[in-house]
Amino acid sequence: MSPRILLAGLFHETHTFVEEVTGADQVRVRRGPALLDRRGDGSTVDGFLSVAARRGWEVVPSIEVGAMPSGTLDHAVFEAFWEAFAADARAAGSLDGVWLSLHGAMVTTEEVDPEGEFLARLRALPGFAALPVFGVFDLHAAFTPRMARHADGLVAYRENPHADAREAAVRSAELLARALDTGVRPRMLTRTLPIVWPPTGTGTADSPMGDLEAAARAIEADPAVWAANVVAGYSFADTPDTGVSVSLVTTGDPADGERHLDRLAAIAWENRQAGIPREWDLKAALDDALSRRLAGPVVIVEPADNIGGGAPGDCTTILRAFLHRRLDPAAVVIADPAAVQALAGASPGDRVALSIGGKGSRLDPGPVAVEAELVSRSDGRFTLEDRQSHLAASQGVAIDMGPCATVRVGGVSILLTSRKTPPFDLAQLRSQGIAPETLAFVGVKAAVAHRRAYDPIAAASYTVATPGPCASDLARLPYRRIRRPVFPLDP
To answer: How far apart are CA 245 and CA 230, in angstroms?
Structure first.
């Protein structure tokens, strides 16, 4: 008989320092056959399904719950997920394994380690203690000892931007196949380091993450090590395990595993300062770019309003600067459903008084009042040009920004979206009639994950320090739960 594998997913990167509570209305739920419909969509679930098809497994689909990065998750959403999963697990009959698509940085209103709690509950179900449990998780997880204790093999993405998310899922599913073929169940060893880096310091093309990933690949030359994970962590989720961690999936002597972790920990500590980025003053960045008379787009990166990190995507500092400098042609994207709605009765060419952005964070200077020309409206749907885009890991290749409107103020095009959408693919602008290659300046609300899309077209890129909930200066954040001491918060 074909091995029967239970499939589920739990995916949310939780920003605990923003005011909102993420409720059920912001969560996307897929049940049963809807998970199987993810075949071919470029997601991590698609990666697992490709291995399952190749291996001839019978997939028993349960439930996948996911949301865009945002504020603390209402615990009722987690409990609803668990009730559905537990019911499916009890009704599934004989199983040979479990495969999970996780993020790893979820926090609810009642639980700082929901993934660990989920895995502990899973193991307590009748018959599940003996099942191999494998899965994939995000490089920006807060990976916990409880997650390691209750899983056989969780595999992290290796790249940031996450171009390898689907590949990491394939890798983890092949490790499940290895366990089924050999009857050998590995264990996980993990260590949380006394380091926390902002997202801007976690690109894998740079030090320290590039050095750590190279060392992890060398460690995997040990035949007993099935996988070595370097977890950059997610600094905006305030938990005891927030920050950098390293882990192994191994069948070897625990003492050997600890020596491998020692090596990774030493590299991280020696290079800890490299994970703290240097950012430009916005005025100085624009002055420098204008003085150089560059041919091609100048990308102004705004990590403080990083949509992929849980920020609202409507901060106005970059927009204000572009308008003040009368930059032409330039573009910014602002998540503002109220502004989109205010344009509902307008026709292209109409000039409309608008209040744009500045509604989602108390750190922002507030809305910008403009008289804007309506250029176009759309349903906001587009298909990723890059199937390995950072966005594809959870969303797949079909993206929905909600109803959108493009307006122009002077030489600045403003794409207004109803749903905040990370700027990880150039099709976001192109689908709305904005050709990114023709711009002189473009504002990007991201930290690192935009690079795969924007670096190839950029004449120059400036990461700037602005007000916002995802600012890189972690010392400003009111941590309450993180372990102490930890670099760079403590001497």
So the answer is: 6
Q: 424, 453 in Cβ contact below 8 A?
A: yes
Bridge partners of 465, per DSSP, are 281
Q: Report the chain's C-alpha Rg in angstroms.
A: 23
Is 466 within 8 Å of 280 (Cβ atoms)? no
- CA–CA–CA angle 271, 275, 280 (5° rounding): 135
Look over the chain and give the mean of its residue pLDDT values, rounded to a whole number.
Answer: 97
- State the Cα–Cα distance between residues 210 and 192, nearest whole angstrom: 19
> How far apart are alpha carbons 285 and 142 in whole angstroms?
33
Cβ–Cβ < 8 Å for 257, 189? yes
Strands 21-22 and 72-73: parallel
Residue 352 contacts residue 371 (beta carbons within 8 Å): yes
C-alpha pair distances (Å), 116 with each of 73, 76, 105: 15, 17, 11
pLDDT at position 76 is 98
Q: Cα separation of 466 and 364, whole Å?
A: 9
Per residue in 58-71, pLDDT tens? 999 999 999 999 99
Mean pLDDT across the stretch 108-127?
A: 98
Task: Read off the pLDDT of residues 234-285 as tens digits, 9 standing for 90 and up.
Answer: 999 999 999 999 999 999 999 999 999 999 999 999 999 999 999 999 999 9
For residue 27, give every residue at least 6 positions away whose Cβ sits within 8 Å of its Cβ, in sequence order, or none: 12, 65, 66, 67, 77
Strand 245-250 to 225-231 pairing = antiparallel
**Residue 280 and residue 283: Cα distance in Å, rounded?**
8
| Residue pair 95/134 in contact by the 8 Å Cβ criterion | no
**What is the rounded distance in angstroms from the CA atom of residue 109 to the CA atom of residue 90?**
27
Q: Is the pTM value of this prediction over 0.70?
A: yes
CA gap 242, 139 in Å, rounded: 12
How far, in Å, are 339, 341, 352, 405 from residue 345 at the CA level? 12, 9, 10, 12
On the 0-12 / 13-18 / 19+ scale of CB atoms within 10 A, 356 is buried
